[in-house]
Write a structure and sequence with these properties.
Length: 113
């Protein structure tokens, strides 16, 4: 009974490697796509779409009330107050004024339209 066995060590190493890869993958992907876009002469932020999807409502412009709290608490509340029942209510996204997107700050400069 002395050291860790080779298989244990290998398992640990692979686990760490997988963890690192999982964490690093989105960053690497974002970096590559950004450099690709700039090499193509496209906007780094929006890829020439001239808009950026709202992260709060995911580009829809509406937010389901349940999603805001991560539960159906408000739904239950409305139901008990004689509201619209168990229907999920949607409210306008205040973050993007219900547009679902913002104009890209890099593309929407007054001079270039
Ligand atoms: Zn842009
Ligand atoms: Zn929004």
């Amino acid at each position: 009974m002395d050291n860790i066995t080779a298989s244990e060590l290998a398992g640990f190493g692979v686990g760490t490697l997988l963890l690192c890869a999982t964490i690093a993958a989105p960053k690497i992907d974002a970096f590559i796509s950004a450099s690709q876009r700039s090499s193509l002469g496209m906007c780094k932020r929006c890829g020439n779409l001239r808009m950026i999807a709202c992260s709060r409502c995911r580009g829809v412009g509406l937010i389901k009330e349940g999603e805001m709290l991560g539960s159906n608490l408000i739904d239950d509340m409305y139901e008990s107050l004689g509201g619209e029942g168990s229907k999920v209510r949607s409210i306008s996204c205040t973050y993007c004024q219900a547009r679902g997107h913002f104009s890209c700050p890099d593309c929407s400069k007054p001079t270039s339209v």
